[in-house]
Amino acid sequence: MALVSGSADPGRSASGTLDASAEGSALPDGTTVIIDPADGGWTVRFVSLFDVEVGQGDWQESSPLGRPVVAAGAWQGSTFVADLHVVTTPHHVRLVVDAEARTAVATWSTVPLTGPSLELHVRSPLMTRPDVA
Asked: What is the rounded distance in angstroms from the CA atom of residue 120 to the CA atom of residue 126?
């Protein structure tokens, strides 16, 4: 898996409001996304949903709702870009936060057959049908 190219820009924070109109959106429309610096990268908070640790120059693992996610990101000018891989699926989410426009988009590489909600795919326990409660 290739790492996201760009710079670390340590100490830089950003936030944006998610636009779910993009095809394959992984998060609900209007979700606030906050990026804060952390050791080795950033903490990305999907407000009211979960947090993910994102590495800079390396993959960082976290288990926001019980299932492992590895993530790496970087700043590309005024835009923060991160790839989030849910370890138990072949799919990944690309997160793009425009710090100047204060907008965010999170889209699947390929939308999972069980549905696009990232929250369901990172929640434990592993279910064959995460769309069924």
From this structure: 9
The fold of the 14-122 domain, in CATH, is Lipocalin (2.40.128)
| Start-to-end Cα distance in the chain | 32
Q: Specify whether the CB–CB gap between 75 and 7 falls below 8 A.
A: yes
What is the C-alpha to C-alpha distance for residues 116 and 94, in angstroms, rounded to an integer? Answer: 13
CA 24 to chain CA centroid, Å, is: 13
Over residues 55-81, the pLDDT tens digits come to 999 999 999 999 999 999 999 999 999
Looking at per-residue pLDDT, the higher value among 101 and 131 belongs to 101
CA distance 61 to 58: 10
Token pair of 96 as six digits:
């793009």
> Which stretch of DSSP H or E encloses residue 50?
strand 50-55
Tokens 């370890």 correspond to what residue? 87
31-59 residues labelled b (16+ CB within 10 A) or e (exposed): bebbbeeeeebbbbbbeebbbbbbbbeeb
Report the half-sphere exposure of 20 (CA within 13 A, side-chain side). 11
